[in-house]
Amino acid sequence: MKQLHALLAALALVVALTPATPASAATSLAAPPDIPLANVKAHLAQLQTIANANGGNRAHGRPGYLASATYVKDRLDAAGFTTTLQAFTYNGATGYNVIADWPGGDPGDIVMTGAHLDSVTAGPGINDNGSGSAAILEVALEVSRQALRPTKHLRFAWWGAEELGLRGSRHYVNTLPAAERAKIKAYLNFDMVGSPNAGYFVYDGDDSDGVGAGPGPAGSAELERVLQSYFTSIGVPTRGTDFDGRSDYGPFISAGIPAGGTFTGAEGTKTSAQAQLWGGTAGQAFDRCYHRSCDTTANIDDTALDRNADAVAHAVWTLGTAVPPQTVWADTFETGTPAWTADPDGTDTATSGQWERGDPEPTSSSGAKQLGTTVSGVNALVTGRLAGSGAGAHDVDGGTTSIRSPEIALPSGGPLRLTLAWYLAHGSNSSSADFLRVRIVGGGGATTVLSQAGAATDRDGAWSTATADVSAYAGQSVRILVEAADAATASLVEAGVDDVTITRP
Asked: What global pTM score does this model have?
């Protein structure tokens, strides 16, 4: 019923997020399907039946959970997925994750979609989280029905023991070899997507709301935009929800994997403004049966469940079938080749914290200032990579520090996009005179592609992603100039840049 809107939104998103899409390949983008609500509800009915037959719940270590995992695995096996029932132990009981891989796609570029399958012991857990489990199961089955041939590798997961502290997803991420973790480029999480007094929340990947935790790992903002684009296409407004660590995205974020997802609300109370935005009842919980015996098939809002199931499909199809961009030039700063030049014009005034390539040591002052982690590998461009005796020992002091890339020959014709990861951290003694700035210089001019000023508030370091259209420089030789400054009164300033890439069709 919403295929045309979803297709248009998917096409727009892929153009925006993956500029390198050859004309011959772009036509292979498949339309995200409309997921039948009746099919999703049929899975919920099965989970309810399983709970009824097993003491009223589907909790970790109880027979109802294993029966639920078996139901999901059997459907996926029959649909042609390669499935694994991954066992783990917690509180003296055996739990299980169901992991399902769809054949094909780039094995080094995995889009993973997950939901927790367990309930609390108090009830059958149909909204929490039969709803997310049923939605992603039906999307996976639709992948099979359409014999989808994605460009990315698709993996689905149903987690055990989430209700006891994300035990199943934590076991999966922590036992996955580092090389395999690095292949997961996106994790989408769907936990409670049919709340009876529903809200429409999308995880705040870029921390644009400025609430609670900071942004997700670099790439999370793109996942947020993909999901938002679906709801925009059907005229449903969304609001951000914080990465507060309460669901299975947590272990993935901790491992530096970009994450996103949707959420329709739990025990929190719907405000008057939210009721005006989405309908429903103000002053009442989004889900009055949260973690209670009344969380049954009667505890579902069909409209919210239908919309969110379609949003799952939209994200899987949009991300999974996107054609990767062609890389024109890139530097992850792992080898030092090509070399960047510090203080290229001989005009720097900073007395410490000069830009250098290296493995940064973490510092903290009222929160993380220099990050000890990079976006990829072990090296990045950082302002004084050593920690020293304290956070202020090797931060930027005394003025400006700069570093410039080698010459980059850009091809002529067609669009070009610059992407980079960055952070600027500062103490509350900072001011708007402090900054991180990135410019592309060529053809007798310069274009600022990133400018972040300081402020008289504490700002902790967190990797974010910036993109810029640099098509105006096609056919020219350019350089990338990165600058940071502690430019007024002495203040604590740290900055980093990683994974600089220029792409084109």
From this structure: 0.70
